[in-house]
Amino acid sequence: MKRTGIYLIGYAFLIVGLLAALWKMGVLAGIGAAWTLIGLAPFLIAQGLYVRHVTPKLPEPEGLRSGINGSGPPLRLLILGDSAAAGVGVSTQAQALSGRLVSALGSDFRVSWKLIAQTGLTAKEVAAHLKMAAPEKYDVVVTSVGVNDVTHGTKSQKWIDQQGQIIELLRSKFHSPYIILSSIPPMHLFPALPQPLRWYLGMRAKQLNSALKKIVAVSSRCEVITTNFPLDAAYMAADGFHPGAPAYSIWASHIAGIIRSRLNVTVLRQGQNR
Does some domain include residue 189? Predict the structure, then answer.
């Protein structure tokens, strides 16, 4: 039995090594993604179950999920989405995206903010939360949605339709003139994911990101952003899947800079129109 286990492990390493070599040579691209995935399906399912079993389940951090902070012109801010929006990977909301972003904006604005986020939410479930929430008005909405759609296998068209529902709800029910959509992170670089699962999820993330950019390209009120930060152990949480405190800080600083720039442009245009 022990020898059989050793053989299976050796076989798995052989398959992964072969796939990596074929990918670098461009052979898999020539075969086509569909046929490649058909052949890999059993292995991807097994790896997915294994990763789900061994990856630590980190809790959402403690701390405030709404409040008022800073001084200056009023800014109503909503942070919306999945476990990354909820701050999984750090111990308090002050270290998470919400806390870092509110703190960064507080030097320029009086920020009235709210966090609506939960571990595991897909785009469809985020839209459902918005439908149930009481209507409010937000000047800026920041979203983090998509990783769970990648891992749950949401079809591209369905995901785009659901993202469209989110955008429409934020515009009509929450009267937001500016929506920042955080792109799905580069899952092909996540240290918690083994190959070829890492390659597959990374490919799906890229596909969904490309589709999302197309649907917002014609709207001046929506923007897809990509925050670049090193995905090494120092920037990741203990599970190798979520951001750590340094990554949340970089992400928040990036978004804060975009919001400042956008609002300054809006103020200047309003002044010119008077």
Answer: yes
